[in-house]
Write the structure tokens for this entry.
Amino acid sequence: MARGSEGIVGRVEERRVLSEAARVDRAALVAIYGRRRVGKTHLVRNHLEPLAGTYFEAIGQHTAPREVQLDNFKQQLERTFFDHRLPRLSDWREALSLLGDGVIAAAERKPTKPVVVFFDELPWMATHRSGLLPAIDYLWNARLSRVPNLVWVLCGSAASFMLDRLINAKGGLHNRITHRLRLEPFRLGEVRELLAKRGLRRGTMQALELYMALGGVPYYLLQVPSGMSASQAIGHVCFSRSGQLKDEFGRLFASLFDDAGEHERLVRAAATNRGGMSRDELITAAGLESGGRATRWIDELEAAGFLARFVPYGRTKRNTSYRLIDEYSLFHLRWIEPAPASSFGARGSKYWMSKAGSPAFRAWAGYAFEGICLKHSAQIERALGIDGMANEVGTWRHVPGPGAHDDAGAQVDLLFDRPDGIINLCEIKYAAEEFVLTKAHAKELVTKAEIFRARTRTKKEVVTTLVTTHGLRPGLWNDEVIDSVVTAEQLMT
């Protein structure tokens, strides 16, 4: 790995891709996208910059006019490639022509080292009628694609821009991207690693509580003060007067999407239904008109990691449902936004701690934990020893028809249909201590498995897996109902 990679948590596959791009035998045009605060800039600076013989970085300035963007770019050209002041740049074609001169000269001086050109927050630079994208297209095709030790990284938080106008572009950049990376929030294991690197050695439940509220966005987790419990830290960053995340929700969508209001309405609508909503249900709940634009907004929210689509087991793509999987958005809508004004102040951490253990807290924690388990299906497979199999992963629900008084409904949070003749039905339960399986709950799980067998007509053996925080307390009904148990600790592997 690159010098400086020791400062990077996780991102193993992403670093491998960037190292591949940094070979000096052919030019690379890399597109990186991912939501705001997810660590895109940190990854490039800490992995590619140490590898570079020459490193150039231009940063887009939000809402700045083209003249300001060009002046910022000129200053970076002067610092990196030229030992004299440059005249005022008239347009992006002129600016990129100078960039091309500098890159080619630097590449010839150090042919065994990559020249790294990093355009950070490209969508903020390539505004409407700016002319930047055509200039990039021309410079790459005409000159820089021939520079074997060049790595040109185009990066942005606006997933719609990066996908529509760059990665899937129909014009001159069509099929020109050599490497693409979608940077996603951390999983639980990476969150605990990040906290440990900061000297915050948190146990499983402390890390899990932080994840349920803040998700895996590195910037959010970096706001956690040392010396505080998870509850204290959440209260501090989300409810105190100086908390960095109490107003983050409103800024978030404006920084990512042109139609931020519509995207926010879709997220709010998705938060109202725990089990997920169809495309039409989601659009209707958001109060939007059905059509191509609404579908594009949903796709953009999925690309940015706010929504996830699920095709129920045994159904077709026409039955796809969408679910809000962004932990911070769920936490904001459930707790921050409805909080009384008096909660936001010096006693913010105490406000949040007062909610712990309440019925509302337990309901939220159960939903949040279920979403986390859906994100960590690969870790559950590993815990069950079935990773590497061609498993079909899904959810399942049976809703009785109208008037079906003798027909019971059933819902399976997560299942694994295995090629070895077994289906694991996962029951996901958040609990403050070891989970206690009561007689009533045991009967419910047995009935659920029977309904699943009858409705799916599967010939495979159906077994029940409990996914819970602390494991299963010894009890009378355990061996008859539960075949395997996965704990929160195993989700961190």
In short: Residues 92-109 form the longest helix (18 residues). The CA atoms of residues 241 and 345 lie 4 Å apart.
